[in-house]
Amino acid sequence: MRIIVFMVLTGLFTSVVRGGSPMALSNDQTSNGGKQISVKVINKGIGGNNTTQGLARFDKDVVGIHPSVVVLYFGMNDAVNSMNSVPVEKYRENLSAMIARARAAGITPVLMTITPVIESYVLARHKKEYFENDPPNAKVKRYNDVIKSIAAEQLLKLVDLNAIFVSRGEPSEGASSLLKNKANLKAPDGVHYTPEGYRAVAESAFAVVRELVKKGDTVVCLGDSLTFGAGAKGAGAVDGETYPAVLFRLLNH
Q: Rounded to the nearest 5°, which phi and psi values hold at 24?
């Protein structure tokens, strides 16, 4: 059986992960509205994680699961979390190491760029001196340039979420924004997503991942709180509003 690590796993049964522990349905059980599950998705997002922390758990959370595909969605904390940032060159090193480990284990890695943020919200809760020379979205661009260059150099599949969100008018403080803000969810967040935002991420990922999987495969979705699904129903699992949850339903439609 091929397994895909998106930090989402695909297979013949569902594995719902909460707090890092999977609760697996047996092969004769069904989910997704009673339909037989053909691709397994595992949510391996942990809030606050950067690439150094992701690399430290990669063998356990990805290689040990033996997925076919792993979706790597790191960079937001590395770039704009002043309390847990990672220098851009170290970020490149960490991301490259995860890709190398995935390939060595026969796992196909998929990369995703990080989305734009509402800068005023980010600046209000982080150390301003960290952004003295680069405002938040300038940092986002620098780290996304690394993701794009690695994808091009290593001929990897890339989901350019940043471009997709920008094409939809982000970052926006309006009520229809895909980013949590005061107008839509009464939260000065500007980084995490609304349910519509998580769906946009999942649909974008699905467009790439669906070409890489077949019946019986597993996908692991590895990342930070944007993968975990901070603020969403079913956070940390694949049975709610998180992007791995929506991806699971799309793959098993």
A: -95, 140
Q: Give yes or no for a cis peptide into 135 (omega within 30° of 0).
A: no
The domain that holds 24 is classified in CATH as 3.40.50.1110
Q: Which two tokens stand for residue 230?
A: 């901070």
The predicted-structure confidence for 57-111, as pLDDT tens digits, reads as follows 999 999 999 999 999 999 999 999 999 999 999 999 999 999 999 999 999 999 9
Q: What is the number of domains present in the chain?
A: 1
Would you say residue 8 lies in a domain? no
Residue with tokens 């690695």: 150
Left if phi > 0, otherwise alpha if psi is -120 to 50, otherwise beta: which for 34?
A: left
Q: Cα(182)–Cα(184) distance, rounded to whole angstroms?
A: 6
Length reported for the chain: 253
The answer to whether residue 174 sits within a structural domain is yes
pTM (2 decimals)?
A: 0.87
3-state secondary structure of 104: helix
